[in-house]
């Protein structure tokens, strides 16, 4: 109290605040004078060393990169000259052979063998010759021989060759009316009359990009034809990719017109556009180093044709330096290319930057050490003066014991100052002790006044609550039937009591605010959920008015830092006034955030307020108009209390209104992370937190005791984890508690842990939904209503979108105990409602009952799954009746264990049960994971349907095979034989529903498509495959290309007359089996095509090739048997490749 009196003393000088601030700014602390110059010297030295080190590193990198660019360019140039010289040497050799009569250019077959042998020696694509009659002969890729018929213009034919280069087999017609005189390589050589290069071109099938070296053949100065050799440019790509250019550098070769010849990137230098293949321009490369380098060269020189010599250049991409060298490449046959090498500076500077960072950290460490030494030195020098300064400050705050810290110093001047200071402090202490005694007397009188006001409050409220409660109970018939007149009089008594209670509350709040005796209990408060609850309570005030209450507060609005109960009181006051003065339209609550504070607006379409009354309505006992008091009632205290409560929170309130159109009340509140200047005054000793004026509280002695205990322990509560607490490993049940109060979480946790429940905890609704979304299995939820971000009502509504009440019980556990709260909770989907404080035994009994009901429902779900009920559009199993069904198109799957009868004969009945249950336990979840459900189990097999389509069925089939593979690994480790599974998938129309009789029913599916699927599953054993799908299932796959599959057969299964195409899905097979089948896929398909066409000889060859690689391919072996049977018995006249099955 002495300190308060001292602080309230008036200032005796006339200096303004700005003058004082200027004086403080001109003063420099002694420590600063000692430390700052020392630190600046060290910092400057470190900065200069770092700068010169970086500059020297850049120069060294530039020299290294220059040498590297030159070396790489030279290697590329040397390789190109060697590689591109080969085709011309071949042409020159062939020309000399002709000139000395070693070859006859008119003998087509001899030329073909001669060229074939040359191709075996040299790494070229093709060697060929075109004569003056338009004829052509050449050795082509894949050891093919190409000729034109009669060695003149005509059919262009491809032959296979033997090991001597001779033509064998039947020729394949490639092109009609082929004329070599029209080919670019022929025209180029004929026009130049000497050896030359053709333009770069791509093969018609897009397999390669090449360039032709062409040489004209003359005899007696007459052109006889043109010799030519094709050279692949992909070899140059491969060579460039092998050259390491730093970490991410690139090399590429480009023609003068800008088209790529080759590059070290992985992209093709050509692409297909329509039916033609187009070459890639370097500026269109997907690699920035290639495209940006070419653009830079074009911009630098105007055109690539203007580059005449080797250039070493630098440029930047997105601010990063790149080193570039461009080198010209020419030969005597007309090539004119550019070799470009690009190296990013970052490839070499990374290590340098790391070293510089380490050096900087070391320098920083040295700087920190220097600062610490400076601080210690300055402290030793300035400590006596600072101690004296601090003692003066302490005395101004009333801490008289601080004068003991002012002791003598070895410095004589400081010692004399300390003696004088201690004397002065002693005299001041004596003076203020007298003032303090008088102040304590005033405090005692103030305390008596507060106690009187608190007792008066209690004495007024108790009879009022009794009067209201008895009157309302009599109206409800507690004392028997009453007459209408008695009911009317009792209703008047109850309403008068409510009005009087509200008036008492307002007067008491006003008195406390006036005397500044309210202490706010501020904490984070969610505006959205608070407004939600207030609007729900305020619905009853609307009556018969055509009025809507709208909550437009954003759900993601930051939390306010406020007293939740006082803020609720503010909302009730303003919203109540809006409803009172609005006959129709709406009352809307909205909020925004700006500069660390919330602005909340409550607008209505009521009678409005005149402008001259905008300020007056916030004064005590004032309303906008006396007539409103008579018409609408009220004391005029509500807005006055509201204004003072908001100012106590550090906010403000204002109104915008127009008569006849409505009003808009706005007020501000601080957000959680802003600094709130709490206006705390002497706290009340009783009724520490006043209940809201519109709540009806009836507290028992036990409740008061609990509240006191919580208040006393609020500062010492053990933090409650918002994550899972495993209370007992033996417990089967998991309970999720959702409450924003840690104490409440702990209380519930303690009760439940004693009963061996496992507990998961969440501090708000969003966190609870996230826990469930992450897959946490919960048996019951205890849910609070008032929570930040999302109210309990909204959480319950969200839960019911996914979890029905019989599957996940929700018990609302909250202090909101009005009937409207309970009804609202049930409307949003709650199973039960308990109010705080609760009886532990009642809570545990209700939890046990709800879990038992839920578990009973889940137990029924083992026989009729919830997915099945949902499919039949039934809420629970009790709604299911015999004959309920759904008819639609969907995918169906049958699966079975192969040779299960043989396996079961080696096991006891118990082992059989264990084996089958273990297998089904592994594979059944895969069906549910892919949105399917199991219609029924068939011993070791199962039937499942997939309402969403064939994609889910195929994915489930692949998943089942993966699970079987995992199970087989365990069986092999245990010395058991692996199991094999067959799966059939089909798509079509079917009916799924309940069959049986009244006392016993089960799910089943019916249609011809179901029977066909069972046949498909049986075919897996016949063809030796694991997963078969029908052509209908294939047609309904959204993206069939993502699966690895092969066509298996067209068959007529038993019981059907029409053939069906079946396919084998390979994705679920063992990797080695799948790889072998993919390796032989081409031969298998060729065999099937020849089999279908009736060419048994060729079909046999292909199937034998398949079995030579994969002897375990039962399908290929089956086809081989069929082919041999057809060869023996002859092919039927109506043969179409369809096989009729005689067994199921």
Q: Can you walk me through this structure?
A:
This protein has 1144 residues and is of the alpha+beta class. 47% of the residues lie in helices and 22% in strands. Helix 9 (412-475) runs antiparallel to helix 10 (484-514), helix 12 (564-580) packs antiparallel against helix 14 and helix 29 packs antiparallel against helix 30 (1114-1129). The protein is flat, with a radius of gyration of 47 Å. Residues 1-15, 626-635 and 674-730 have low confidence and may be disordered.
**Biggest pleated sheet:** 9 strands, antiparallel
Using DSSP, what is the number of strands? 37
Rounded mean pLDDT score? 79
End-to-end span in angstroms?
102 Å
Structural class: alpha+beta
Query: Any idea what the shape is?
Result: flat
State the low-pLDDT regions, or none. Answer: 1-15, 626-635, 674-730
Rg (CA only): 47 Å
- The helicity comes to 40-55%
What fraction of residues sit in β-strands?
15-25%
The number of helices is: 30
List the helices and strands and how they pair.
Blueprint: H1 2-7, H2 17-25, H3 30-99, H4 108-121, E1 126-131, E2 136-140, E3 144-148, E4 154-161, E5 167-178, H5 184-192, E6 196-197, E7 201-202, E8 209-219, E9 222-232, H6 234-242, E10 250-255, E11 260-263, E12 270-273, E13 276-279, H7 288-301, E14 311-317, E15 320-330, E16 336-344, H8 346-396, H9 412-475, H10 484-514, E17 522-525, H11 527-542, E18 546-551, E19 560-563, H12 564-580, E20 584-594, E21 597-604, H13 626-632, H14 638-648, E22 653-658, E23 662-670, H15 701-713, E24 734-738, H16 742-754, E25 758-762, H17 765-773, E26 780-783, H18 792-802, E27 810-814, H19 819-827, E28 832-835, H20 840-863, H21 866-871, E29 885-897, H22 900-905, H23 909-929, E30 933-938, E31 941-946, H24 950-973, E32 981-997, E33 1000-1006, H25 1008-1023, E34 1027-1030, H26 1031-1035, E35 1045-1052, E36 1060-1065, H27 1071-1079, H28 1081-1093, H29 1096-1109, H30 1114-1129, E37 1139-1140
Parallel strand pairs: 18-20, 24-25, 24-26, 26-27, 27-28, 32-34, 35-37
Antiparallel strand pairs: 1-2, 1-9, 2-3, 3-4, 4-5, 6-8, 7-8, 8-9, 10-11, 10-16, 12-13, 14-15, 15-16, 17-19, 20-21, 21-23, 22-23, 29-31, 29-32, 30-31, 32-33, 34-36, 35-36
Helix pairs in contact: 3-8, 9-10, 10-14, 11-12, 12-14, 17-18, 23-24, 28-29, 29-30
